[in-house]
Write a structure and sequence with these properties.
This protein has 147 residues and is an alpha/beta fold. The protein has one domain: RbsD-like domain (RbsD-like fold, 3-Layer(aba) Sandwich), CATH 3.40.1650. 26% of the residues lie in helices and 20% in strands. The chain is built from 4 helices and 6 strands. The protein starts with 8 loop residues before the first helix and ends with a strand.
Length: 147
């Protein structure tokens, strides 16, 4: 299900094993990869250093490689130490990069622990660990159909 300009062989191979409705998680630098992943998820560690690569760097490449029909984000806390008063700034970048895809830039918000559950299902075939430092930057993509 590849449209392919992606060069990373391990990511390309994992995507090639997926199909319609398979999922890909692009995770930030705080994501618990060892404990919150599904049984079929291959983890590719791209986290070179703090901030590199960013989730948006990876998303930009993936939008050229796979059709994306759904994009889910971990909803932010409204109270407590990690509370925000508005959507995280990175979500604006997600929407911009996803606008040309089948999800048309729409982000589906999922409560934190429900997000971990969704990222731990057998449908998740790939987790790409980034060095992203912005909070609420995890993005769960559902692969669509090549038209």
């Amino acid at each position: 299900m590849l449209k392919h300009t992606l060069l990373h062989p391990q990511i390309s191979a994992a995507l090639a094993r997926g199909g319609h409705a398979s999922k890909v998680l692009i995770s930030d630098g705080n994501y618990p990869h060892g404990t919150k992943r599904g049984p079929n998820a291959e983890v590719v560690y791209l986290n070179l250093r703090a901030g590199l690569p960013s989730v948006t760097d990876v998303l930009e490449v993936l939008t050229t490689a796979i059709p994306i029909e759904r994009a889910e984000v971990m909803d932010y806390a409204r109270t407590g130490p990690y509370a925000l008063q508005a959507d995280p700034e990175i979500w604006t970048e997600f929407r911009r990069l996803l606008r040309p895809t089948d999800c048309r830039g729409e982000l589906v918000k999922i409560e934190r622990f429900a997000f971990y559950d969704a990222a731990g299902t057998p449908d998740v075939i790939l987790i790409i660990a980034t060095g992203e430092q912005r909070i609420y930057a995890n993005l769960l993509l559902t692969i669509g159909v090549v038209r």
